[in-house]
Structures are given as structure tokens and as C-alpha cells.
């Protein structure tokens, strides 16, 4: 990531780090880690250097050394932009948080924005917007919905979901945590408005405003589903729809943090969370969302509906 290439302030340390990156690119992660240790002997307070050491050590298979590097990083990175706690949690060396690691996710997508679509769609076979759109169109047909007055696209990114929504929606809002992502999508002219915001804050600012909310591969960075639903449901108008994706796992845990630093949610726990939020489940399917290092990533594609006021009141009674 771009932040990992920040200068240490020392020419010799930077040079050794540069050689380390070249070795890592050639596949020799053990030698790369050794060079980073030498660089960090010169500049022991270089947060980006400890991040590089952790990554090289992890890829070499030396998890103990990676954890040690990330503990140093955690002590140096007060803002959390490097995601040290997430990296430790992914290896069982810290507790995973239940909310979004805002600084880390923002930095991740700020640096990823210029090559986002090329990498995600072209190289990783990403198809969540198409899959969600297909499910949404089917449910619109069943419900007799021809369009939406107001839609909110959470984590709008570069507008991949917005491109599918534009013809269905009168007023389309996009929200993203990354300024660079918003700059990319603004050029497309898809959204009536765009806002940089954390998604729960964005939802809390829009009570009963939207008749459609979408989130394509967004909640995978947010941890527990319940706090998200607690903000999402009040933001929907009665009868409104929400369509979103999650990465899935078959274990008993409600969620766990993968080495990719994305959260995977349990199938049963997700169903229970949706029902507990008083949402009607219209579609709940599993599918391959993308590929990661050549391996398919299975996830959930979900379309839910907020009950009409009369139905909700009758249920409460």
C-alpha cells in the first residue's frame, strides 16, 4: 500500500527497504525480512518499516516474527492506519473489533482507488454488483416495483453498483469512507450526491429516507452485523428494500476475521440477525463473489424488506 512506502527519513534505511521490496517481488520473502530488520536497526521508530517487516515475515511463513513486528507497529501507529490490531487479530494474537477499523479501511481504499476496477473486475473476477442487481430485479418484478424514489449506495467505491442502479432510481446517493474513491466515481456522473462518511454515521443521518439501500462487498470490513442492521432498518422507509453481500463461512461462529483482514459471517448467525432486526428475507443465496490468490471466495447475496408500518405494528402487538 502507498503508506508502506513512506520514507524512514534515513537514506540508508530507505535503500535497504527498497532492496527488500525487490527481493519480496522476486519471491524471496525471507531475505526481504532480513533486510528490513537491518533497516529498522537504523530507524526503530519507522512504522511503515515495521509494517513491511510483518508482511515479509508472514509471507515467508515466520508468523511469530510477523506478530512481533506488528506489535511494534501497533505501539507506533496511534491512528491505526496500518491495521496492526487487525493483523494481530487475524493470527489470534489480539481481539478482533466488532466495528469498522476506520483509519485502516480509509487508507486502504485511498491507495487502491486508481487501480480498483482494473484489479477487482479484471484480475479477481469480481461480480457482486451484477449478482446483486439480478436478485434485486427479480424481487422488484415479484413485488411490482418499477423503480425507487431514493436509493443509498453504501461504500459506493468507484460506482460499480451505481452503474446498475442509475436507471432504477430517481435520486441516487453514494457514501464512501475514501475520498479517493469518491473522486473516481464523481467523474462518472452517476450519483445525485456523494458523501465521505462512515456508513453507520451515514445511516443514522437518514432516518426513513430511502426505499432502497445497497452495500456491495462493504459489510465485510465492518465486523458484527447487528450494529449495522440497527442503523440500516431506521434509514429504510416502510416497505423499502436492502440488498447486500457478505463473505460466508460454515462454522458456528457469527463471524471471524480472515488473514485478508475481511470478516466472514456465519450463515445461520446471519439469518438470525436479519430476523432479529424484523426484516423480511426475500433472497438469501450463496455464490462465488470473486477469487483471491486463485481461490474462490464464497459469500452471501441477500435481499431483505422492511415491513410496511401496518405489518410491523401488528407484529409488535
Description of the structure:
The chain folds into two domains: 2-95, Serine Threonine Protein Phosphatase 5, Tetratricopeptide repeat (Alpha Horseshoe); 115-316, Vaccinia Virus protein VP39 (Rossmann fold). Helix content is 47%, strand content 22%. It is built from 14 helices and nine strands. Helix 1 (11-25) runs antiparallel to helix 2 (29-42) and helix 2 (29-42) packs antiparallel against helix 3. Mean pLDDT is 89; it is low at 1-5 and 310-317.
Structure described in brief:
This protein has 317 residues and is α/β, with parallel strands linked by helices.
Topology:
Elements: H1 11-25, H2 29-42, H3 47-60, H4 63-76, H5 84-90, H6 102-112, H7 116-123, H8 128-143, E1 148-154, H9 160-165, E2 169-176, H10 179-186, E3 193-196, H11 199-204, E4 210-215, H12 225-235, E5 236-249, E6 255-257, E7 263-266, H13 267-276, E8 280-292, E9 295-305, H14 309-316
Helix pairs in contact: 1-2, 2-3, 3-4, 4-5
Amino acid at each position: 500500500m502507498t503508506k508502506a512506502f513512506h520514507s524512514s527519513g534515513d537514506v540508508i534505511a530507505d535503500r535497504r527497504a527498497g532492496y527488500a521490496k525487490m527481493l519480496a517481488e522476486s519471491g524471496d520473502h525471507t531475505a526481504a525480512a532480513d533486510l528490513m530488520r537491518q533497516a529498522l536497526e537504523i530507524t526503530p521508530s519507522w512504522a511503515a518499516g515495521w509494517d513491511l517487516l510483518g508482511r515479509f515475515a508472514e509471507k515467508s511463513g515466520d508468523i511469530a516474527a510477523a506478530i512481533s513486528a506488528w506489535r511494534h507497529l501497533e505501539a507506533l501507529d496511534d491512528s491505526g492506519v496500518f491495521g496492526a490490531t487487525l493483523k494481530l487479530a487475524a493470527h489470534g494474537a489480539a481481539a478482533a473489533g466488532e466495528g469498522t477499523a476506520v483509519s485502516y479501511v480509509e487508507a486502504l481504499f485511498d491507495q487502491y482507488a486508481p487501480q480498483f476496477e482494473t484489479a477487482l473486475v479484471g484480475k479477481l473476477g469480481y461480480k457482486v454488483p451484477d449478482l446483486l442487481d439480478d436478485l434485486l430485479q427479480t424481487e422488484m418484478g415479484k413485488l411490482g416495483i418499477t423503480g425507487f424514489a431514493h436509493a443509498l449506495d453504501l461504500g459506493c467505491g468507484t460506482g460499480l453498483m451505481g452503474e446498475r442502479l442509475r436507471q432504477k432510481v430517481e435520486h441516487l446517493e453514494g457514501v464512501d469512507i475514501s475520498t479517493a474513491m469518491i473522486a473516481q466515481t464523481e467523474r462518472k456522473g452517476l450519483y445525485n450526491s456523494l458523501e465521505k462518511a462512515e456508513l453507520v454515521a451515514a445511516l443514522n443521518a437518514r432516518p426513513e429516507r430511502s426505499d432502497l439501500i445497497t452495500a456491495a462487498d462493504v459489510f465485510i470490513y465492518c465486523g458484527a452485523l447487528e450494529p449495522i442492521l440497527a442503523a440500516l432498518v431506521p434509514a429504510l422507509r416502510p416497505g423499502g428494500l436492502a440488498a447486500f453481500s457478505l463473505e460466508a463461512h460454515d462454522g458456528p461462529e457469527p463471524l471471524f476475521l480472515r488473514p485478508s483482514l475481511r470478516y466472514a459471517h456465519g450463515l445461520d448467525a446471519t439469518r438470525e440477525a436479519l430476523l432479529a432486526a424484523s426484516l423480511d428475507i426475500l433472497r438469501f443465496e450463496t455464490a462465488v463473489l470473486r477469487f483471491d490468490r486463485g481461490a474462490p471466495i464464497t459469500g452471501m447475496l441477500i435481499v431483505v424488506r422492511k415491513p410496511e408500518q401496518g405489518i410491523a405494528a401488528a407484529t409488535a402487538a
